[in-house]
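ok posting inputs for the zinc ion job
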Amino acid sequence: MAGVAGMAGMAVLVSAAGPRGSDQRILSELRAGGWHNRRMANVQFTVGDITLTRVGYVDVDVEPERVGLTADQVAAVPWAEPTWAGGTQLRVGAAAWVIRSGDAVIVVDPAQAADDILRSAADAGAHQEAFAGVLAAAGVPRDDVTHAIATHVEGIGMFAWRDPDGSWSPFFPNAALVVTQRELDALDAGAHPTAEHGPFDALRARGIVDAIAGDRPEVAPGVSVEVAGGHTPGHAVVRVRSGGDSAVMVGHLAVSPLHLATGECPQQHPDPALVEATLTGLRASGALLIGPLWPAPGAGRWVDGGLIAEWGTAV
Ligand SMILES: [Zn+2]
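and the output
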């Protein structure tokens, strides 16, 4: 699936296309504890009684082809720079979004789709320790998380902890791993665009997967997981509604914010028309839009034909 290759390519580019030919520099800094906190403030948003916090790990610039776009498409989006792109390169981020609603502490798509570098055997241990460290520094120790939502199954990101013997256990030991029933059905039917999901299967075998079906979309007050499809059969968006305001986490329906403006993207999605129809609705919704792979601040609102970045409160 081309979309998966594009997503995995993001990680390749982390190591291969630093702006100054700096793959070794980036890799060594990724391993350096605390570097991410110095580089990147976390940002927090309030939606009624619910808080949304982006805990950033690293943002990097990649060639647009890695997410199914071209340099010409990037150049044609007047609002791309300086937040979402730099020159003809797109900016992407590895981050965790944390939703607090009532007693629930919900993490969405933590560092998903960067497995090539963050979860490779040689580096998995260092990255998971560092990622857990930035979460703890942001007030989100792994043990406190009650739900880990995967908008879809693609790679393992920081849903799983790689143990010294190479096996996988839950990254968030007290959390349910939430995916849609439709995504599980697609996996079980061999109808999912990616075939291998070893670490996910290992977690599923432990019985921690909580399947969200159509009649039970809400996982916490004001937080619902709703099937949108298009990218994978059971791809979901996470909707947050409280106090008359709303936010939507779009998963990989817009890997870059520029995908909100560049039209159908068959390089990323088996059903690009369905994705575009969903994005059309989201643009018109007035909701705060959030992407797990968007660089800081990772959020914005669609206003007058462009995405206006929202910076929330630095925390
Ligand atoms: Zn994906």
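notes: Residues 2-23+43-314 form a domain with the Metallo-beta-lactamase; Chain A fold (CATH 3.60.15.10). The chain is about 25% helix and 30% strand.
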